[in-house]
TrEMBL record:
Isomerase as UniProt keyword: no
TM stretches of this protein: 12-37, 57-75, 81-103, 135-157, 169-188, 200-217
InterPro entries tied to this protein: UreH-like_TM_dom
Biological source species: Pseudomonas fulva (strain 12-X)
Protein's name in the database: Urease accessory protein UreH-like transmembrane domain-containing protein
Swiss-Prot/TrEMBL keywords: Membrane, Transmembrane, Transmembrane helix
Span of domain Urease accessory protein UreH-like transmembrane: 11-213
Source species, domain of life: Bacteria
């Protein structure tokens, strides 16, 4: 449990601050979803947005479970130390990304473009959003949209060597993205602007980097635990 808590905090921070940092894409999607709700169903907007985001978070969790099984197979052998090193380095990279100091993670988006080409036509069939089940399906599909931060978090979660833990981390990451995306869909600009503040992003990025350093195997772990 002592080992899991920093990871859960990292996943939550990545989702919360990553959502504020990536509003260019995510905000556009939420705007498109809101516009896809027919006028006579606008009073159900919150319920439909919650259903959409539930589907999206479930898709993250499913991806974490599937990739976590592959990570478990690797970590069960002599590659366990290597997997932990990869996890630490990915956390450091994501901390740099959140703080706005390095954006190399966006290159990972190319990994999912082939899959998204097959899924994108299906998303169009789900519009307009006329019911919560339809919003849930659409969210589940849009959860596979190529995103450097999501993919990096997924690789980090999979490197834990435990499928259930990987799924839990991706679920927690998804919960972290929920406030900013709901706020975007409901036009709650105050929360969005708070999460986009440079000071908030840098503080969160530094904390994630610290967790990454703690994850890397070595004698420095005992020093960090003591402080």
């Amino acid at each position: 449990m002592t080992d899991l808590l920093p990871q859960l905090l990292s996943a939550l921070m990545l989702g919360l601050l990553g959502g504020g940092h990536c509003l260019g894409m995510c905000g556009g999607l939420m705007g498109a979803l809101t516009l896809a709700i027919p006028a006579e169903r606008r009073h159900q907007r919150l319920r439909l947005l919650v259903a959409y985001n539930t589907g999206r978070i479930l898709s993250y969790t499913t991806a974490g479970l599937l990739l976590g099984l592959a990570g478990w197979a690797l970590a069960s052998g002599p590659l366990a130390t290597l997997m932990r090193s990869i996890a630490g380095l990915l956390l450091i990279a994501m901390g740099l990304y959140l703080a706005g100091w390095w954006s190399g993670l966006t290159r990972i988006e190319a990994l999912g473009r082939g899959l998204w080409r097959h899924l994108q036509p299906i998303t169009r069939r789900c519009m307009p959003i006329t019911s919560a089940p339809r919003a849930l399906v659409l969210g589940g599909l849009w959860g596979w949209l190529p995103c450097g931060l999501v993919y990096s978090t997924l690789l980090w979660a999979a490197s834990q060597g435990d499928a259930l833990r990987s799924a839990t981390l991706m679920f927690t990451f998804g919960l972290g993205t929920l406030p900013v995306l709901l706020a975007t869909g409901l036009a709650a600009e105050r929360l969005v602007s708070l999460l986009r503040r440079r000071g908030v992003r840098i503080a969160g990025g530094l904390l994630v980097i610290l967790f990454g350093l703690w994850t890397l195997p070595g004698p420095h772990q005992h020093w960090l635990m003591g402080h």
